[in-house]
Amino acid sequence: MRPTPEDATRVTCVGAGVIGGGWVAHFLARGYDVTAWDPAPDAEEKLRRLVDAAWPALIRLGLADGAARDRLTVAPTLEDACAQAHFVQESAPEKLELKRDLLARLDAAAPEGVVIASSTSGYPMTEMQTGAENPGRLLVGHPFNPPYLIPLVEVVGGERTEADAVAWASRFYEVAGKSVITMDRELPGFIANRLQEALWREALHMVANGEATVEEIDDSITEGPGLRWAFMGPCLTFALAGGEGGMAHMLDHFGPSLKSPWTRLEAPELDRALYDGMVEGCERAANGRSIADLVAERDQGVIDILRATGRLPGRREERK
Ligand SMILES: NC(=O)C1=CN([C@@H]2O[C@H](COP(=O)(O)OP(=O)(O)OC[C@H]3O[C@@H](n4cnc5c(N)ncnc54)[C@H](O)[C@@H]3O)[C@@H](O)[C@H]2O)C=CC1
Ligand SMILES: C[N+](C)(C)CC(=O)CC(=O)[O-]
């Protein structure tokens, strides 16, 4: 049976890569018992390495009472992983058929009524819930990397998802310390990834055409708009571009620029040259720092920003 969001204490994470592992670290830090399952032979070793790497940042953020890494169990089968779950988070590879089959298996394995969320970056749940016996409890809970530090989760159901399941998941994520946007309709890419993708496509066009380097693109955000976006979104930020006249003056003043050819939203062809250009550009930008170095740097940066802007994730609410 589905517990109340406040009473849920046992989370199952299926798929334990970058995002599944990040979810595991988040739920452990918020004081949950976590069971993970992943079919890869080296999955447990990699998962524990990810959690260990994240833990110092989570300590700096503040752990919930009772939070401990030894509350993680890695189950031998998907069925074992789901047997006692109060909530299931699926984070398997972004392949539609795989997600469909996996969600149907999770639905067959999880206790009656328990909500099952997919971390998908963009598939609508309507397209993923087709094989499940009980599609009403399947929904999207889209996180941001790393889920143990970035607060946002976008929650949205599919055509056959029950409204109660969406409400349950939104409340559950809030209790678990996340910041939730509950969408009332499906949109490929949800909200944030549609925005990110627009920027990303333009960045790829600029690299493909030799118009800007990877380093210039990254600096243009971190030394520019990215500083504002950490605490004020693009709409309010641009309202300030209108001075005392706010958004109305901004639109009067800069509205005509919308007709200028500033963006090319169709994605560029990801051919070998662009692929290699992006990989080599990122290696240059890393300037000798390993992926582990960059993860540690990113984690510290996110914590500093959350602290500086008064938005440390809330500690888990007391259970009744
Ligand atoms: N990487 C990112 O920045 C983000 C990814 N996502 C979404 O999260 C999901 C997972 O992506 P990543 O963690 O990046 O991928 P990943 O490749 O790092 O991890 C995927 C994991 O799933 C496991 N796996 C393979 N087949 C499986 C199966 N049949 N059942 C269960 N697990 C299986 C793999 O062994 C691997 O450990 C995707 O849906 C992706 O779109 C969402 C937000 C951000
Ligand atoms: C790259 N990505 C599309 C998988 C990213 C996301 O889905 C969200 C994020 O972490 O930015």
TrEMBL record:
EC main group: oxidoreductase
Catalytic reaction annotation: carnitine + NAD(+) = 3-dehydrocarnitine + NADH + H(+)
Any one GO molecular function term: NAD+ binding
Keyword terms of this UniProt record: Cytoplasm, NAD, Oxidoreductase
One Pfam family cited in the UniProt record for this chain: 3HCDH_N
Known pathway: Amine and polyamine metabolism; carnitine metabolism; Lipid metabolism; butanoate metabolism
Cellular compartment(s): Cytoplasm
One GO term (biological process): fatty acid metabolic process
Domain 3-hydroxyacyl-CoA dehydrogenase C-terminal: 189-260
Keyword set includes Oxidoreductase: yes
Domain (3-hydroxyacyl-CoA dehydrogenase NAD binding): residue spans on this chain: 11-183
EC numbers on record: 1.1.1.108
Residue sites binding NAD(+) per the record: 15-20
Major localization listed first in the record, in broad terms: cytoplasm
Gene Ontology terms: cellular component: cytoplasm
InterPro entries membership: 3-OHacyl-CoA_DH_NAD-bd (IPR006176), 3HC_DH_C (IPR006108), 6-PGluconate_DH-like_C_sf (IPR008927), 6PGD_dom2 (IPR013328), L-carnitine_dehydrogenase (IPR026578), NAD(P)-bd_dom_sf (IPR036291)
Quaternary structure, from the entry: Homodimer.
Membership in a protein family: Belongs to the 3-hydroxyacyl-CoA dehydrogenase family. L-carnitine dehydrogenase subfamily.
Function summary: Catalyzes the NAD(+)-dependent oxidation of L-carnitine to 3-dehydrocarnitine.
PANTHER family: 3-HYDROXYACYL-COA DEHYDROGENASE FAMILY PROTEIN, 3-HYDROXYBUTYRYL-COA DEHYDROGENASE
Protein's name according to its UniProt entry: L-carnitine dehydrogenase
